[in-house]
Design goal:
CATH class of chain B: Alpha Beta
Largest interface: A-B, 29 and 23 residues
Number of strands of chain A: 0
Order of helices and strands of chain A: HHHHHH
Radius of gyration of chain A: 16 Å
CATH topology of chain B: Rossmann fold
Strand order of the largest sheet of chain B: 1-3-2-4-5-8-9-10
Number of helices of chain B: 10
Distance between the termini of chain B: 38 Å
Largest sheet of chain B: 8 strands, mixed
Oligomer: heterodimer
Strand content of chain B: 15-25%
Number of domains of chain B: 1
Order of helices and strands of chain B: HEEHEHHEHEHEHEHEHEHE
Structural class of chain A: mainly alpha
Number of domains of chain A: 1
Number of helices of chain A: 6
Structural class of chain B: alpha/beta
Helix content of chain A: over 70%
Strand content of chain A: under 5%
CATH superfamily of chain B: Alpha/Beta hydrolase fold, catalytic domain
Chain lengths: 124, 288
Amino acid sequence: MSNVLKIIQTLPASLVGIIVTNILLIIGFIIGKLVMYKAENAIKFFAYFSVFMCAFFVAYFVSIIWFSLSNLYLGNAIYAAIFPVFLFLPFITGHFATYEKVHFYTNIQILTLIISLLLALSFI
Amino acid sequence: MAQSLDFEFKHESNCKRAVLLFHGMTGSPFEMKKMGKALYDADFDVYCYCLPGHGTSPINIKNVKWEDWYSDSTLHYRTLSSKYEEVYLGGLCMGAVLALAIAAEYREVRGIISLSTTLFLDGWTIPWYNFLMPIGVHTILRYYYSFPEREPYGLKNEVLRKKIAALQKRNTEALDNYPMSCIYELLKLSKYAQKNMFKVQAPVLLMHAKEDDLTSPKSAEFVYKNIGSNIRKYIQLEDSYHLVVMDNERDFVFQTSIDFLNGLSSYGPKIEKLPPVEDDIFTESAGL
């Protein structure tokens, strides 16, 4: 455990931000997917749930921009160019999504988040 | 169930003029019924139909696009325009936006009553976290989020407020929440209407509550400033919230609408014709 903490301390804060928000979003979407139809009438629950998810998205986007800009500043052009793709994917998924296929598109969203998480972990 | 909420108030005699009313987002023709009755009593045939996805369950509304509302409404408009010499449009909230969008396409619309026009969601009951809405509406989250309807339910009148709250629990006449997907479609319709506002040539009467809880008077002001029509009138209501057709000033709203339409009609009682607007001083306040 102490080794893990030591590794985390050596990582740039933006990369930690990407990893943490990624995990939170993945967990959030899985929970949302599982309870969506079972708790269709729990409007307040979904209202707060969505607000938190939006806030996580904001943190996720900020972390990505921060990570990319710092890499650009350090001259790591490839690193800087990879992550911004994930800024657009939630909106592209959202554009094509329909209520009838909401589970399918939620899976796509989770998949893109997992890819971004794996990519972030590969920088460690 | 949706069919039973529709209403058609027709005179037995061959009436030459009709008003097609559109209800608001997550509402139903129920909310327009009193206005319909008032217009009918003033010798207009009145029609109001449930918009696609409305009047049934919250799930159905998540499956519709703004194009469905628009095509369904234009279909009703075309049917009426083939039967009547004068067809007027009237709408509340999203219904007002629909009426304006249709008038932009069909220049022969004779007049528009635009009540609580909802181009922007910026009223005082919109939650503080509204700044997150762009992320909510443009991602998959729009199918998860519903904005819960809360006090004052668009009504300043407290007695009516309790009745509406009870109706919303039944989720037929009106829903007790605004699904984010529905807001997303409304915003797309609003964008379309804003883009085409200059094409609207029909005379328009705008009535908007100063303290509208859902959408501030900014929406009505936008229409007033950008509409192509040179006959336009904007009245700010002092003692109502969003549901102006039910709230404290409903009788004033009905009478003003009737006077406005009679002023445009060739078949109604002889009323002084409305002059074209030359500048922005035509804005009035109900001041009741």
